[in-house]
């Protein structure tokens, strides 16, 4: 069955001209690079990435250095779980999709599968889905993994 990987962006700077333009902090860069290493070591690859168009999500994606289709989705910025679910269903991905977005949407997307705490920065939740991604619903998934880089 397919997998949905839900990632909250890495740690961002507190201030910028606008919220959408907040870049990653030094800690966030370290988090993303550590996650990239973990993904390679774990043999995890994606059909597609759906990423918000904010600077911090794009920078997180760039540091992951993934070789797959990229969908920069402006409506993923501060999106609800419902909107993120629609993006997953419309993605065309077959086996696996990575969503890089923001709280509260990413947390709410994982709650029906049993992840009840708020996703922290650069936290990845792995959902194993019992339906095709075209019919994605978080209620039809179970959490099979969770990873967050611990960096200083």
Brief overview:
It is built from four helices and six strands.
Structural topology:
Elements: E1 3-8, H1 26-42, E2 48-51, H2 55-64, E3 69-72, H3 81-90, E4 96-101, H4 105-110, E5 124-129, E6 141-147
Parallel strand pairs: 1-4, 2-3, 2-4
Antiparallel strand pairs: 1-5, 5-6
Helix pairs in contact: 1-2
Structure description:
It is a single chain. The chain is of the alpha/beta class and 152 residues long. It has one domain (3-147): Rossmann fold (3-Layer(aba) Sandwich), CATH 3.40.50. The protein has helices at 26-42, 55-64, 81-90, 105-110; strands spanning 3-8, 48-51, 69-72, 96-101, 124-129, 141-147. The protein has a 6-stranded mixed sheet with strand order 3-2-4-1-5-6, with helices on both faces. Helix 2 (55-64) links the parallel strand 2 and strand 3 (69-72). Helix 1 (26-42) crosses helix 2 (55-64). The longest helix is centred in the N-terminal third of the chain and has 17 residues, at 26-42. The N and C termini lie far apart (36 Å).
From the structure above, extract its key features:
single chain; 152 residues; alpha/beta; Rossmann fold; 4 helices; 6 strands; 22% strand
The biggest sheet, with number of strands, parallel, antiparallel or mixed sense and barrel status, is: 6 strands, mixed
Count of runs of 4 or more consecutive helical residues: 4
Based on CA atoms alone, the radius of gyration comes out at 14 Å
Q: What percentage of residues falls in helices of 4 or more residues?
A: 25-40%
Note the run of SSEs as H and E: EHEHEHEHEE
- Overall average pLDDT: 96
User: CA-to-CA gap between the ends?
Assistant: 36 Å
Biggest β-sheet: strands ordered side by side in the sheet: 3-2-4-1-5-6
- Poorly predicted parts: none
The CATH architecture term is 3-Layer(aba) Sandwich
- State the domain count: 1
Under CATH at level 1, the class stands as: Alpha Beta
Strand content: 15-25%
Please name the fourth-level CATH homologous superfamily: Phosphoglycerate mutase-like
């Amino acid at each position: 069955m397919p997998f949905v990987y839900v990632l909250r962006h890495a740690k961002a700077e507190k201030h910028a001209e606008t919220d959408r333009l907040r870049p990653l902090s030094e800690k966030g860069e370290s988090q993303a690079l550590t996650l990239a290493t973990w993904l390679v070591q774990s043999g995890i690859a994606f059909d597609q990435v759906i990423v918000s168009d904010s600077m911090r999500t794009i920078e997180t994606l760039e540091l992951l250095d993934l070789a797959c289709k990229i969908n920069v989705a402006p409506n993923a910025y501060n999106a609800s779980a419902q909107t993120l679910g629609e993006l997953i269903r419309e993605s065309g991905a077959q086996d696996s999709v990575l969503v890089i977005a923001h709280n509260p949407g990413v947390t709410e997307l994982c709650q029906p599968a049993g992840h009840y705490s708020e996703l922290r920065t650069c936290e990845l939740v792995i959902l194993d889905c019992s339906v095709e991604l075209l019919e994605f619903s978080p209620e039809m998934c179970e959490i099979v993994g969770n990873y967050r880089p611990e960096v200083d």
